[in-house]
Queue: 4 jobs
Job 1
Amino acid sequence: GEMVADFDIGIMPLFADQEWDKFKCPTKITQYMACGLPSVASPVGFTAEVTSHGVEGFHAATTAEWVVSLTNLIDSADLRQKMGRAAREKAVNVFSVEANSPKMLDVIRRAAEISGG
């Protein structure tokens, strides 16, 4: 976390034709988001669902898209800050323990009721 906080941009390149990459957990992206970083990620598997293209970061499927996305973020501190704020907000509101604890507690309560406990 400490080292990631020193980053300006998070990246997660994946290969769409690799079965392994299709099922990778996008923890890296959520860590970037928690640190308030914009990211560029390959839109492969669940990784494509974690961020909204153009909001918390960019999705890049081709070399040209990677170059454009990274260049846009490198060249604009304002864009990095805007996307970084959106990423942090989504991390807190969607992926944090605080956001998910009530949901998990509800699942546990319902399971206990079903099992008669």
Job 2
Amino acid sequence: MSIDRKRLIINVDDFGPSEEVSLRAIEAYQAKTISSVSAIINIDWNPKITDFALDIGIPMGIHLNYTSGKSTLLRNSSLVDDDHFFLNKNLTSTSHIAVRDLYEEFENQILRIKDLGINLTHIDNHKEQIYFCDRLFDVVFRLASEYSLPLRNPFRGLTADGMAENCHRYKIPEDLILQNRKKVRKISDIYQVKSPHRFINDIWDNSIYPSYLKRQLDEAPDLTELCVHIEGELGKSKLDFIASQEFKSHLDINGWVVVGYDCLS
């Protein structure tokens, strides 16, 4: 009996600042273990990494960032302190942020990475705080629409496991997630930006990582994105599992094929 094929995007976040992460991701892409990466442009960007990435043609998205490192604009705004470092506020402290400031910072990050000769494949965000404030997430949807880029939407197809993980990770009640999910759905309808049908978030408990991934994929629809962070020994362990024959066999048996964000273009 034939199996209906389902598409899986495997994306490595936090590409760029760390040579360890960047080289590890490049090797994984060359080995056909991952689909793409998401680059942080405002923290210790390594030009050698850019050249290497361009040489091998690794698909790259922008990991928009307003919580870590310095602003790319280097001017006073509601996002930064006196030294132009992002204020790194928590989920309950976004009222100080001016939407115009966020738009200009995010657009500048997009333009900076495009100026390096990189053809962006998608947009997503560093840290998920922005997903819990609709007026800020509207900025991301607007930019994705203006630059005709697919966008990671973590609320799309959110499962019970994903809900529990978000509640635990961000110390927020489930009803707040449900409220924001409805708001983001409305924003998505307005901008008509393409997104994967489900987003599988990363976890940092390697003792359950294999079973977590398999369970998530068993419940997932066609065109799902799996996000993975590969820094340090924990990250290496996760990447090793994704590259393992055990995981590849699970994908094959269940009809999964690894694709890139270009399938949404």
Job 3
Amino acid sequence: AISQYGLQIAVGSEDGSIRRWDALSGAAIGGPMLGHTDGVESLAYSHGSSRARIVSGSTDNTIRVWDAGTGESVGTPIEGHQGWVLAVAFSQGGSCIASGSQDKTIRLWNSVSGAQLTTLVGHEDWVRAVCFVPGGEKLLSGSWSIRDRTLCVWNITTRQLLHRLPGFSPASRSMTVSPCGRYAAARSYFTDYSLHVLDIEAGCSVGTSLTGHTETVTSIAFSPDGTHIISGSFDGFVRIWD
């Protein structure tokens, strides 16, 4: 994961540790952040909060919150999932955490108290990606398997499933939302290694698929101004799309 202004990078490991680096100098920041008892599957930085936090999800079935400056654990482990925590995200402002799990649920948590706020049920297999939509009322989630290869759009206030879009295989870094909150980009489930742009409000694809990669797409991001999409792939290339 990378911090809001791109100055710090955090990486989670199979040994349960999390390490931070200065993105400009490449120097390690502090020692390893220890607490998880199994591998770290997902990380995210808070955006827009006064004190930067890191949230981590693990195959020990827990979520932890960390101070991004000191590396210290904040509060106690957040428990509730009945399976691995495969995806985590902070809401704008950092007051809420979303998590996706092997138990097929998405859960929302108060990031300060760790209290569970709600559970979203609708996926038929592991939830591998979660992403808040700017504005705070919507959340995207993704699953990919033979049983469930969908991207879902939720209203988190009413817990209503607004749209279910088939044919996607979003993982933790292969689904992203534009800064304006209107569009999302995700990789296709099919073997053409393509990307699709989605209209979140309408619940449909926009334009034609973006093709060019020759291996699995591993990461996708919008540019800060929302005019370009950047994708990385196992084919060794980073591509920029208009």
Job 4
Amino acid sequence: MIELLRSKKFEIYKIQPKTTLTFSEMMECYRKVLMTFVFAVGPLQLFSYPIIEWVGIRTSLPLPSASEVFWQLVVYFVVEDYANYWLHRMLHHYKWGYDKIHSVHHEYVAPISFAAPYAHWAEIIILGLASFLGPLLVPCHMFTFLLWFVLRQIEAIETHSGYEFPWSPSKYIPFYGGAIYHDYHHFVGESCHSNFASVFTYCDYIYGTDKGFRYQKEVFEKRREKLRMEEKVNGSAPLFKSE
């Protein structure tokens, strides 16, 4: 909605303001995502139910305490982030994996929230394994299980929003990547060797795969306020651009 409004109030927070999509392009993205959910995600959820019972995810009362839910969610985010990092990196490392599978998700150089689940059905299954790994290692109540996937989707939507607001989670959660972090990954595309992690930044830092992003951020962070001031006169300017 913000993207379609083209509001100057929000435009200054858009990471790649020169790249915009029309309403029809957004609806086409939404249509393809819906098809993927109907023919890939839906059947996967049906077939995974016996596995959910087998790993020990319970549905009976009582409900888990708030502290139990909190710490299980922390574990799930950390485990998923680590597993997703290596699976995502693998899809970039092997040309076949990128060309045949991951390139679909990278069709959007400047991502939008609709594009968060926009991917090849095989990628949804591959990266879905990372999301399921936490509950597999630390079984929980169905309430926590569903909450985990809701929060993970909200995080993915925020990460692909294409906007960095003053209230973005990256400003308050330590080691959280956020929209600007993942936007750089989409901006570089196939040749990107940086920012593979899905949620946090620690894996990229530890394994040295955030150097390109850190360099670009250091350079353009100095120009950001200047660019946003110039936007009022000359129009929006991107945070990332090829030199």
